[in-house]
Design brief:
29% helix, 7 helices, six-stranded mixed β-sheet, 220 residues, Metallo-beta-lactamase, Chain A, 13 strands
Length: 220
């Protein structure tokens, strides 16, 4: 589903899956490929928009929880894309990948990255993506922000009318509150969470942050 000239979204298809985003630019980036078993649904929807797996150059993740990254290795096999991870994702790999899988009594799905990205900015195309460390839901959570296009892919930091959970390994309520306060200061016209609906206007984004601060964070 095309959201802007640069940004596409593919909503989660079931349990242990996430929203997938594609930034179509000089270098094409996929963020959060999601579930291994549901990946082919994403690929099918991409092709309907004229995007083949081979068109993707880079795979990124907002954080390394199973529902967001599990199909990374499988997608690399069919696309040839490079998997990049953030330094925080490298540092806290054990907590977010191994320990979180144990919480759910599941086998961790491991993968090998091709490179570690710069921790502040990703300048692979005409869009410069600012990378914002946003711990709280997990130690390695990051958001991707385009100042030019005013969109933010925020993973499980904040949703429409809700926030990410803090009871998994590395989760921290105070850190999540701080991260939400930080990203609320950005000029965002389109907020793209890891689950549920996106927020398609500056007014809706602003109202959502206000609701979260007044009605959700007070109880966190």
């Amino acid at each position: 589903m095309k959201l802007t000239d640069y940004l596409y979204m593919y909503p989660e298809f079931g349990m242990l899956d996430s929203n997938t985003y594609i930034i179509k630019d000089n270098v094409n980036i996929l963020i959060d490929i999601g579930s291994k078993t549901l990946m082919q649904n994403v690929v099918h929807e991409m092709k309907k928009d004229g995007i083949d797996p081979e068109d993707i150059d880079i795979v990124l993740n907002t954080h390394l929880h199973l529902d967001h990254y599990a199909a990374c290795g499988d997608f690399k096999k069919i696309s040839g894309a490079r998997i990049l991870i953030h330094p925080l994702q490298k540092k806290y790999y054990d907590q977010t990948v191994i320990q979180t899988a144990r919480v759910f009594n599941m086998q961790a799905i491991e993968f090998k990255e091709d490179a570690v990205m710069d921790e502040k900015e990703l300048g692979q195309g005409s869009l410069q993506l600012e990378i914002i460390a946003a711990p709280g839901h997990s130690l390695d959570s990051i958001c991707f922000y385009s100042k030019k296009e005013k969109f933010m892919v925020c993973g499980d930091v904040i949703f429409a009318q809700n926030i990410g959970r803090v009871d998994l390994p590395g989760g921290n309520a105070d850190q999540l509150k701080s991260s939400i306060e930080t990203i609320s200061r950005f000029d965002v016209d389109l907020l793209c969470p890891g689950h549920m609906d996106f927020l398609p206007s500056a007014d809706e984004v602003k109202r959502n942050f206000e609701f979260i601060k007044e009605s959700v964070l007070a109880w966190l």
